[in-house]
Amino acid sequence: MQxxxxxxxxxxxxxxxxxxxxxxxxxxxxxxxxxxHTRLEEMDDLSTWETQCSGxxxxxxxxxxxxxxxxxxxxxxxxxxxxKAGLLTITLMVDPRVCAYFGIAFLLAYLMAPQxxxxxxxxxxxxxxxxxxxxxxxxxxxxxxxxxVLFFTPGKVGREVNAVxxxxxxxxxxxxxxxxxxxxxxxxxxxxxxxxxxxxxxxxATIVMYTQGKxxxxxxxxxxxxxxxxxxxxxxxxxxxxxVSAKQFGSSQITRR
Length: 257
Description:
Blueprint: H1 2-7, H2 10-20, H3 22-32, H4 43-67, H5 72-94, H6 96-112, E1 126-128, H7 131-139, E2 146-152, H8 156-172, E3 177-183, H9 188-193, H10 198-201, E4 204-211, E5 214-222, H11 232-238, H12 241-248
Parallel strand pairs: 1-3, 2-3
Antiparallel strand pairs: 2-4, 4-5
Helix pairs in contact: 2-6, 4-5, 5-6
């Protein structure tokens, strides 16, 4: 029931309605012809543009889904983004005035109905940490226990990294290696104390490994310049999770899914 309520939130409803508003516009053009401001010669050109945009959107979503373990939230957010970009491109070719109307509608939707943050979908073995929990588990942790902590900012990049981090936790988490996550917006003082700032983490994420509260290794990723750094295998290699696990537990004690 909670999942249903989440996907009935204003973000999903408003974006769906604004995108579906193209249907009556498209019907009007099919009945009355293209606008005199159009850059297209005939209706068949519009159909070609629609087919090409739809195919490109499906291709990009399929590639991203194969390369990363995406949550449903991320897939829908990407679909909304690509569909809106496609609609703006098509309407600009047909009638710039309609394009402007859609642009204003999309801007209002972005400002008034932001995507609600929701914790990871599906299975994961991580703990969402605030300042007291960080102090209890990470800073004053038991000897021999390592924590791999993700500092993220809610948003598209944060959701993608959370999904990758979830897959890592399922593969490597054990009684000696724990995974934690810190929402930088919800715990800014904690993030600041660990050298992570909301502005610098907006387009990426910071992952830090701790032993009894002491930083062992850190890696900050930028989704614009280092998209490959978001991949689970690369993160595992950066923090040598295989060797850390083998040293402490032996490979037979690690459950990989």
